[in-house]
Design brief:
alpha/beta; Rossmann fold; Isoleucyl-tRNA Synthetase, Domain 1; seven-stranded parallel beta sheet; four-stranded antiparallel beta sheet; binds 5'-O-[(L-methionyl)-sulphamoyl]adenosine
Amino acid sequence: MNKFYITTPIYYVNDKPHIGHTYTTVVVDVLARWHKIQKDQVFFLTGTDEHGAKIAAAAAAVGKSEKEFVDEKTQSFKDVWQKLNIEYNNFLRTTDPAHIAAVQTAIQHLKDKGLIYKGQYEGLYCQGCEQYKTSDDLIDGKCPEHQIEPQSMKEESYFFKLSQFEKQLKEKIESDELEIKPTERKNEALSFINKGLKDISISRANVSWGVPLPFDKNYTLYVWLDAFLNYLTGLGWKGGAGNAPKFFPPDIQLMSKDILRVHATIWPALLLALELPLPKKIFVHGYFTVQGQKMSKSLGNVIWPEDLVGKFGIDGSRYLLMSLLAYGQDGDISWEKLTEKYNADLANGLGNLVSRVSKLNENLKVKNKKLELRIKNLEGLFDEFKFKEILDEIWQQIAWANKYIEEKKLWELVKTDPKEGKKVLENLISLISGIGEVISPFLPETSEKIIEILKTGQGQPLFPRI
Ligand code: MSP
């Protein structure tokens, strides 16, 4: 039996989840379900990144204590994942005392190994990204992600010897020992590393909302180091170097381009420093934009997952998310486009097919002969993250079946030539049962409903028209 360990980033809880977080999490859920069907031993980890200046500021802005604020926001992530039928194995919070203790043990170890030293930090920092910036990263003096000018920071600080790992990281990424997909993203990571990796400041003198450095309580740990170790503590790791927990390393880590750079440098360097194996693969998906613009609260164009589920249902939402972004590409969404696709593919497509066929079968009661829907290279498509291609392929079959009903005038045929009608129905029912199975990682509830409808001949419409 193969093990399969897959992760989402742990999300910042400065706000409730939006459609971007939802997308990553649904993709991971689909992959986890697919691997379970393949009989792999799956561990799916997600969670929340709860420390740092950004979160502290968000709590202060609404007059709440940090603790009260992060508890509330974390709950909103859990609620949304439940609404979307996300089957994670663990939800790691960085405020969990066991996580904090393990992080401190690990950081102490790095200090003992001589990989952490004290110095003076001077440079630019974007609090929105919680990342260091160089003037090369800025457009018109602003962080392009957050449209804000980074702060200039000057303080005494502890540094992690990231530069020491430059050569090793380069080799491991080049050779695909740590595989970064798509290739453009691999090249982007390599070109960043090739510019030279500097040691990074890993302590904060003025951020109290964080993990205290075990060897100097005047400082808290830079939030990204705290965050990265979640991928280990989420498996019960206690901070021991060379002590990989069961399921480690990750087989796939999903994220978007905003956090690739740190995942291709600081994260694997930490693992090398802790004598632990590197993730096998990082997949970087595209960005959702809304009507050409970045989603943001101030623009008022954020699409919230609750609204999505309210309108399209659980599986409707999962389907729309999974079919929107082409491999590694950005994609633009709008309520109009989502509604159009829902009606075309789900209400008129799959929903209509299942309801027509089950109705026509009310009298004839043709039994379901099992058919496995053959999708060419399905495994390969999953391995290559070609979700849209998989769905397109399945939906071509659905379109074909709906056309077949029209061409055969099946509603007449079952009366005029019941024998021939039965044969056509038999084909359709087998096809639908094959579709019911193959969609199950994407649309788990619908998959069950279809199997039920085929068995009993009864059921509610799958996707009411909007
Ligand atoms: N807390 C860090 C990650 C630490 S992991 C050790 C963080 N959090 S975040 O809340 O900002 O989440 C970023 C991730 O959310 C992206 O990498 C992506 O997975 C998802 N998305 C957020 N906005 C997105 C879009 N607009 N489009 C698609 N996904 C994006 O970074």
